[in-house]
Specification:
The chain is of the alpha/beta class. 43% of the residues lie in helices and 15% in strands. The protein folds into three domains: 49 residues, no CATH class; 127 residues, Rossmann fold, CATH 3.40.50; 139 residues, Nitrogenase molybdenum iron protein domain (Rossmann fold).
């Protein structure tokens, strides 16, 4: 074989391997084409290739060649899911409130993880550089870039955030080839729900009101939300006006009376400009707010927006139950 022919074949083999990596094929498959040997022979350790599996998700079906080792996750809910399953991704989106860091609920588990932009705007160049073998995202956020992501690695999307957090958790767990571990985590969560009901007893009849302050707007939160779905599963009562199977209403001050309940929880979505806090201060000083029974009875409590709303995963769900139980039993 001439030197020129050798270099040509080597170059073709290298390009085939790179293309396979970029289109989501496993490293063993790339090496198989590059060397002409079966995957189990081409591998360094001689182990047979792990069995592949297919995951049905919001965008269709995606084959995954084996348990992923280099995962990139594009949702805060997904970051929390990976943390709960003991999976450390190579890349993940930063928090909504500070894109350069992760939420405190997962900060320790995400040490050393590369931030790949924000949930609303992932950085494709950074993702490519991480050479992932699985990308986890969300149709609601990332539908327009699904094809680009799929060209990088096998990609699995949940539908949307909101109230279906347990479905999203299990879909990500399945994609990670950790379905059994995911089922056990949810089984433990269900036990905690039963324990909560037994512990609070008649306090389940306490009507819980939920309000969120955001930059430039205020929402009354209903059942099709992360917190709303937890309250419904716990069997906790809601004010009649808030017991609706929809997401939320953005309201003006005239609707503050609809925020009343036996107990009221509110949280503020901070983005670093202080606008949500300013709005919260203005509204909570309003005479209509001050006239709410929950406020007059000292049963209006500010809670953590990240835990009670924004992060939206199983770690936060368990923490919400712990905190809610304490509030109900002590008030």
């Amino acid at each position: 074989m001439s030197l020129r022919t050798y270099h040509t074949k080597a170059f073709i083999a290298l390009m085939l391997a790179l293309i396979l990596i970029m289109t989501g094929c496993g490293g063993q498959q790339a090496e198989q084409l590059a060397t002409g040997k079966p995957a189990e022979q081409a591998s360094d350790n001689g182990n047979q290739q792990e069995a592949s599996y297919t995951v049905k998700h919001a965008m269709g079906e995606t084959p995954i060649p084996g348990t992923p080792k280099r995962v990139v996750v594009l949702t805060a809910q997904g970051v929390e899911t990976l943390a709960s399953l003991g999976v450390k991704p190579v890349g993940a989106v930063g928090s909504w409130t500070d894109p350069t860091s992760f939420y405190h609920i997962v900060e320790k588990q995400m040490e050393g993880v590369t931030i790949v932009g924000t949930e609303s705007q992932p950085n494709l160049e950074t993702i490519v550089g991480l050479k992932p073998d699985l990308i986890l995202g969300m149709k609601f956020r990332h539908e327009k870039i699904y094809q680009q992501l799929s060209a990088i690695a096998p990609t699995v999307f949940v539908e949307e955030p909101r109230g279906d957090w347990k479905d999203n958790f299990m879909l990500y767990a399945e994609a990670l080839n950790k379905k059994a571990e995911g089922e056990q985590i949810l089984a433990d969560y269900d036990k905690r729900v039963d324990q909560f009901k037994a512990n609070v007893g008649d306090k389940l009849n306490t009507k819980v009101s939920v309000v969120r302050f955001m930059p430039g707007r205020v929402r009354i939160m209903y059942n099709d939300t992360f917190l709303g779905s937890i309250l419904k599963e716990l069997g906790v009562a809601r004010p009649e006006s808030q017991d609706q199977d929809k997401f939320a209403d953005e309201v003006t001050r005239e609707r503050i009376p609809e925020m009343d309940g036996d107990i009221l929880f509110y949280f503020s979505y901070e983005t670093g400009d202080g606008e949500a806090s300013k709005l919260e201060e203005e509204w909570t000083k309003d005479p209509l707010w001050q006239n709410l029974n929950a406020v007059k009875n000292n049963k209006a409590f500010k809670v953590d927006d990240v835990v009670w709303n924004t992060s939206g995963g199983v770690l936060c769900a368990n923490q919400v139950i712990d905190e809610l139980e304490k509030y109900l039993l002590e008030n």
